């Protein structure tokens, strides 16, 4: 089979490495891919948002199955366009991807179908939003409606900060049209859990739970990033919590999307907070999380391609989705300065004795050398019998990967380990 994966980060590298385990796979093309994954996929350089070129490539290369991984092409309708020319795909249609593409849509959906989430108000008028946040109970959460590279959320400690956030989104348009409407939300507390779930629109099969580390600095300080590391499973996601999530969140969400005429197929990501009143949805994503995927897929024992095809075909109920009972830890190595200013172009060296998966996110190939080319450069994932051992092994292997100006958090998994003990 000829497979194509749209995207070019660490998440896509993890997906590609797992897909390669299926012996039916002859070739995997990455669109665009990156210079650090050329041993695993043919990197085409075709941009992940260039829907016309993606479709053209799929037709010309007689692609048998496509995986669309990032949010942008999903929201732009890559799956719809590929299906139209007869290419089966893993991923939601644009209508279904609105669950991530518009926070207003997802909040209203949860309200209509009584899915637990933070109380909220929506504003399309800036003055009304300012009036509201000027007197709202703090901390208060201000979110841009549309996609904003995971940066469209401000937790305002004071009313003044909330007013500034509203102005930067609605007046200064720092996220462009994504900020033309804002959601103002009640601040919730509790540990966060990410649950990625396979679904064919009828059946939902959650993957092993994970924990992201979004802040740039140790101790969850510093700026929000795309994610500096992950562990799986998440100790806060107990069997009782999982049962409650299935009954009150996962199944009602699939059902709600069907009733809205927006059947969701693919990977639905539930960003959850385990509050004193039970689990609540912080956000939905219409795709695999990054870097959650880098700990979840290494623990998947069943065949990924078979599951993805079952999601597309509507036969997920009959398909085995089995995870190992081991633990995984992924430490992201970034360019120093990320998520703000950073330098790139430094050679990446991976020691021959690395005993971990290295998923490359931001790299380019130049005269046979792999050079850094992004903020998040790569993730080092180790799997071991328990969480403590996985963390130790991941950090041991991080020392065997090097590039100038590398930065990584030293405490990935520390909070999870404390929760276990
Ligand atoms: P999001 O992009 O919606 O996942 O938000 C980014 C981060 O902001 C989340 O991972 C949470 O840590 C935090 N956050 C978002 N909404 C809330 C909320 N209502 N209460 C507390 N924290 C929140
Ligand atoms: N790691 C969070 C996300 O993928 O949105």
Report on this structure.
With 421 residues, the chain is of the alpha+beta class. The chain has 4 domains: 2-91, Rossmann fold (3-Layer(aba) Sandwich); 125-180, Dna Ligase, domain 1 (2-Layer Sandwich); 192-318, 2-Layer Sandwich (D-amino Acid Aminotransferase, Chain A, domain 1); 327-420, Phosphoribosylglycinamide synthetase, C-terminal domain (Glycinamide Ribonucleotide Synthetase, Chain A, domain 4), CATH 3.90.600. Helices cover 30% and strands 28% of the residues. It is built from 13 helices and 25 strands. Strands 12, 15, 18, 20, 23 and 25 form a 6-stranded antiparallel sheet that branches. A 5-stranded parallel sheet has the order 3-2-1-4-5, with helices on both faces. β21 and β22 form a beta hairpin. α7 runs antiparallel to α8. The longest helix has 21 residues, at 239-259. The chain is globular, with a radius of gyration of 21 Å. The relative contact order is 0.14. The model has no long low-confidence stretch (mean pLDDT 96). The chain binds adenosine monophosphate and glycine (GLY). Residues 118, 141, 150, 153, 155, 185-188, 192, 214, 271, 282-283 line the site of adenosine monophosphate.
| Terminus-to-terminus distance | 46 Å
Q: Would you identify the regions where 5 or more consecutive residues have pLDDT less than 50? A: none
State the helicity in percent bands. Answer: 25-40%
Report mean pLDDT, rounded to a whole number.
96
How many individual helices?
13
* Secondary structural class: alpha+beta
Largest sheet: 6 strands, antiparallel
Can you tell me the CATH architecture of the largest domain? 2-Layer Sandwich
The radius of gyration over CA amounts to: 21 Å
Q: Briefly note the CATH topology name of the largest domain.
A: D-amino Acid Aminotransferase, Chain A, domain 1
